[in-house]
Amino acid sequence: MRVLVVEDSEPLARSLEAGLTADGFAVDVALDGERALEMAALHDYDAIVLDIMLPRRNGWLVCRALRARDDWTPVLVLTAKDGDLDEAEAFETGADDFLRKPFSHLVLVARLRALIRRSSAQPSTELVVGDLVLDPTRRTVRRGEVRIELTAREFAVLEHLMAAAGAVVSKRDILDHVWDVDFAGDANIVEVYVGHLRRKVDVPFDRSSIETVRGRGYRLSEAGG
Q: Among 3.60.20.10, 3.40.50.150, 1.10.10.10, 1.10.600.10, what is the CATH number of 127-220?
């Protein structure tokens, strides 16, 4: 899941980035409203965490501009302001949820995941491919009745593959959704994580559900026995 954090306080922005990354999100950061709109136009995000008091263009105007161009990415507004009028204004501008500073990181993550679930076209929160089941709410994976322990990044890669089950997912697409826009490392990092996943979700169960499609990417299929 890829999230854009829009916050003009760089220490807070980087703290949010670190915390959300540890929870398995790919996180990009914008420090002002104009940059936020530029990044939202360039990349597909699963959600936007949007501060209100921003330079160049405030959060209310950013949200209005997004909706005016038919960008309905879920928006979670952060503000230090208090009062019902500010909360009402957040919703009037097209925001989906509202969180006052200071806030709990656990609450922020829970709200984000709830927003992303609600915006998904899938009727179930669980992703199921054969006997492989991923629950994004509980952050669990199991093969049949056996629980599989994954790191946050492994979980994010598997979630992306399972969401597109049966279709080929390119290495670039995985990078764009699981790593942030500033990632400047070797794209072969995707192969490394796919290898980790195979050793955890396939090999112990005598399966081969994660296929390499030469020259195109990877495909997760049910018929991987």
A: 1.10.10.10
